[in-house]
Every structure is written in structure tokens, then in C-alpha cells.
Amino acid sequence: MFFGQPLVPSIDAAAVPADAHVLDVREPEEWAYGHIEGAQHIPLGELAWRVAEVPADSEVYVVCKVGGRSAQAVQYLNAQGRKAVNVDGGMLAWVEAGRPMVSETGYPPMVV
């Protein structure tokens, strides 16, 4: 346990495979400003009732802005029998690692 929270499986942003199934659990506005191309988007607050949309037969890499919400999602998904891994440091670490992002705003992608 870490500060009262159970540890979850995690990976550095730089080590996420290029063909990985990425689940982004941030809010819609955060997603619109910048996200990983090809990622699945299910806000954390919707995950419990949309869990059937998350693949059960492959590893899922879960991301948020800094890693807290995604850690909660990983705990939940693994309890539901999924194979989920937290992306350490979230989208901020993704950008720091030089990994690509896309935006739906018409402006260059950014993490908000």
C-alpha cells in the first residue's frame, strides 16, 4: 500500500507499446485538447456502466492527466477481470517522453 492506496500494475509512458490498447479516463474537455491517437475514451465517472466496452481479452493501458484517476480505473478494471495497467505520470509523462498526441480543437495538442 502507498499512502493508504493499494499499488496497481504500472508502466512508464515511454514503454507503452505502440500498438497498445490505451484507455483514457479523463473528462471530455481534457480529451478534446489532447489525447493519444487511437485511444479509447471513457471518463472515469462512466467506467462502471461502460466496462463492457473495455476489452477483456487483451492488456489495457489506462491514462489520465497525472495517474491518480487511471490508478483508480486500473483497480476497478482488474477487479472486474480485465488486465489493466496504469500509465505512470499520465498524459504529462506521455508528453515528457515525446510520445505523439492529437487534438480535436483545431489547435496543437496540449494536456489540460
Structure characterization notes:
The protein has a single domain (10-102), classed as Oxidized Rhodanese, domain 1 (3-Layer(aba) Sandwich), CATH 3.40.250. It contains four helices and five strands. It has helices at residues 28-33, 47-50, 68-79, 90-96; strands spanning 10-12, 21-24, 40-41, 59-63, 83-88. α1 links the parallel β2 (21-24) and β3 (40-41). The radius of gyration is 13 Å and the shape is globular.
Which properties best describe this structure?
single chain, 112 residues, alpha/beta, Oxidized Rhodanese, domain 1, 5-stranded parallel sheet
Topology, pairings included?
Blueprint (H helix, E strand, L loop, with lengths): L9 E3 L8 E4 L3 H6 L6 E2 L5 H4 L8 E5 L4 H12 L3 E6 L1 H7 L16
Parallel strand pairs: 1-5, 2-3, 2-4, 4-5
Keywords: Transferase
GO molecular function: transferase activity
Organism: Carbonactinospora thermoautotrophica
State the CATH architecture: 3-Layer(aba) Sandwich
Rg over CA atoms: 13 Å
The largest beta-sheet arranges its strands as: 1-5-4-2-3
Number of strands: 5
Report the end-to-end length measured between terminal Cα atoms: 29 Å
Pfam families: Rhodanese
Organism: Carbonactinospora thermoautotrophica
Protein name: Sulfurtransferase
InterPro entries: GlpE_sulfurtransferase, Rhodanese-like_dom, Rhodanese-like_dom_sf
Give a brief description:
Helices cover 26% and strands 18% of the residues.
